[in-house]
Design a protein that fits this description.
The chain contains ten helices and 15 strands. It has 351 residues and is an alpha/beta fold. The chain has two domains: 132 residues, 3-Layer(aba) Sandwich (Rossmann fold), CATH 3.40.50.720; 182 residues, 2-Layer Sandwich (Dihydrodipicolinate Reductase, domain 2), CATH 3.30.360.10. Strands 12-11-7-10-9-8-15 form a seven-stranded mixed beta sheet, covered by helices on one side. Strands 3-2-1-4-5-6 form a six-stranded parallel beta sheet, sandwiched between helices. Helix 4 links the parallel strand 4 and strand 5. Helix 4 runs parallel beside helix 5. The longest helix is centred in the middle third of the chain and has 20 residues. It binds nicotinamide-adenine-dinucleotide. Nicotinamide-adenine-dinucleotide (NAD) binds next to helix 1.
């Protein structure tokens, strides 16, 4: 970054956080308490009381009611976007207009078309400034599996299996919400773990409670990917017992799957037990910290290096195809166009 002298005199990157709810509040606290090299300079929320509370807890950050005003402020060099999904694309575009690096929570946008607008703006700019909050890519258990798969130790990876269970479905959530808000993480995991692009999806579902006919809180997603690879994903957003996410990558000569997250295994009265996390904030606490720390370091080194706008776009194209498959009851193709050169990395995506 060029404007090091601006950073409050101590060299730390001045970060503005949009949205101070569950995720934005967590990101702000994490930046304030755990991340080296950054300072929460400002927060923005339409809920002034909530914003004021988080600003106070983060060392007296400036408070803005309007997110665009905060992004445009000279005292903000990089932006975390954690407001509701429909606000994401426009706020990311504002960051791009000003050349400010940004970490946008998933989904990057509410449709592939909107996400493509972000990709096109970034390509036009000629540099990557956008990172999308697919934090599983920083989860130590997931990274271990990815490293084994990429090392060749289990032979050519041919199958991804993912399971994703939430304790309780939010009121009013329909099948489309389950795909865009929950399954989108798993769609990204499959692409990332297999280094491949999704070509076709087929979704079967159930309403496990019978409360909302035709709206699936349990979805089984089958994927075909480039390079002759396959994936199955179970998304169960009303599982009752707690929050759980895991993956397995099957290679031609072996397999690797995520170890259970930390926590003692307790054996008592002839029963062996282990804690199950309540939600994503608990399960992925370490991942969120590492995500932010690496984001800050990557900005210092020039540009964000994590999941990018293309990953945000490609996951939304697959998500839209999943929704189409739920409606049609048939497999649906995933029309991902050629990836712009800006997003090509060495060794990325098998064709
Ligand atoms: N990566 C993950 O694991 C993960 C998990 C949960 C949610 N999310 C994503 O994070 C985002 C936020 O979700 P959440 O659970 O924190 O929601 P939330 O409702 O707890 O918080 C959203 C906050 O944004 C504020 N807000 C609304 N409109 C705004 C605007 N125009 N400008 C500024 N602030 C505004 C709200 O007042 C609220 O405080 C969503 O996009 C969601 O999909 C990601």
């Amino acid at each position: 970054m060029e404007n090091a002298e601006k950073r409050g005199g101590d060299g730390r990157i001045l970060v503005g956080v949009v949205g101070t709810g569950g995720m934005g509040g967590m990101h702000a606290h994490c930046l304030h308490r755990k991340v080296a090299g950054a300072r929460v300079a400002a927060v923005s929320d339409v809920d002034a009381e909530q914003a004021g509370k988080v600003a106070e807890e983060c060392g007296g950050a400036a408070v803005f009611g309007d997110a665009v005003e905060m992004i445009r402020d000279d005292g903000v060099e990089a932006v975390v976007i954690a407001s509701p999904d429909p606000t994401h694309a426009e706020l990311v575009l504002e960051c791009l207009r000003l050349g400010k690096p940004n970490l946008c929570e998933k989904p990057l946008a509410t449709s592939p078309e909107e996400a493509m607008g972000v990709v096109e703006a970034e390509v036009e700019l000629g540099r990557k400034l956008v990172q999308v909050g697919f934090m599983r890519r920083y989860d130590p258990q997931h990274v271990d599996v990815k490293d084994v798969a990429a090392s060749g130790a289990i032979g050519r990876p041919v199958l991804f299996k993912g399971w994703h269970r939430n304790a309780e479905i939010p009121t009013g959530a329909d099948s489309g919400w389950v795909v865009i808000n929950s399954a989108i993480h798993d769609l990204d995991s499959a692409r990332w773990m297999l280094d491949a692009e999704i070509k076709e999806v087929y979704v079967c579902g159930l309403n496990t409670t019978g409360s909302r006919e035709g709206e699936f809180d349990l979805q089984l997603i089958q994927l075909s990917l480039t390079g002759g690879r396959l994936a199955t994903i179970e998304v169960n957003v009303d599982a009752g017992y707690g929050y759980e996410v895991g993956v397995e990558v099957v290679g031609v000569s072996g397999t690797a799957y995520t170890a259970p997250p930390s926590g003692a295994v307790v054996r008592l009265d002839r029963v062996s037990s282990q804690n199950v996390e309540a939600d994503w904030l608990e399960r992925f606490e370490a991942a969120y910290n590492i995500e932010l720390q690496q984001w800050v370091e990557s900005i210092n080194n020039g540009y964000p290096t994590g999941p990018d706008a293309w990953d945000g776009y490609a996951s939304l194209v697959a998500a839209e195809a999943c929704i189409a498959s739920i409606k049609s009851g048939k497999p649906e193709s995933v029309p991902v166009p050629e990836k712009p050169v800006l997003y090509e990395k060495e060794g990325s995506v098998v064709r």
